[in-house]
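Annex B. Sample input.
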Amino acid sequence: MNQQTNLFFLAKACLDACEPDDKLALTRAAAEQWRHGRLSPEADAAVEPIGEPGRPATPKLVAPRDLPIRKLGSDQGRAAFIHSLAHIEFNAINLAWDAVYRFREMPPEFYRDWVRVADEEAYHFGLLRDRLRTLGHDYGDYAAHNGLWEMAQKTAFDPLVRMALVPRVLEARGLDVTPGMMQRLHDIGDEESADVLAIILRDEIGHVEIGTRWFRYLCEQRGLDPDKTYQLLLEKYLEGNIRPPFNDEARRQAGFSDAELAYIHQLVS
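Annex B, continued. Sample output.
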């Protein structure tokens, strides 16, 4: 098989690309080829063990506790805040391509969904990077943490666990906090950045819904109750450590059940 028409080969190439411009260009090209039916999800090589994805030499990665609190009252603080969001979106590109590359023998719709997610995350990163540049900065100028990718490593062994904990925990957290971030940007008159976050929130509801759909698909395949399985995974991997606020409306749009929402609220009551 021609490697240039193999979805898994191109997913790995996108994942391995280090420079942001290269990762964005490869992502756009692969997504376009997939949309036109030019790529085949047929395994031609074994899945490699998960390591570190391609990323630029900067930003420097540090522990979350070592990151300064970002206050929006100054241009510097606002740039650092937007940089933190850009870093999340850059990692999200890698997470989406890793889901495509790593989890074989899934239905074609699985790959359709996660290629779409990778393409949209690349679009989000580009929007935030443009905002950074208007503030005189660029991606890599501030330190960041590696929490998203660490969760990818922890969940590499099972797509069910990945779907539960990455889109339905880490990305769902974005649904919870983005409205508040938008309001803070409105309060300081940064309507352009708030508009970018509105686009991201709209798309991320769809990304979390994709995670919900495939989590439930895999639960059904294995004869598992999805509500109970989600609770057990939260207890095992996060020790029930989920913090408010919760955007129940957005989570419902993303497919969360009433039982799941009740359980999450119970954890903090």
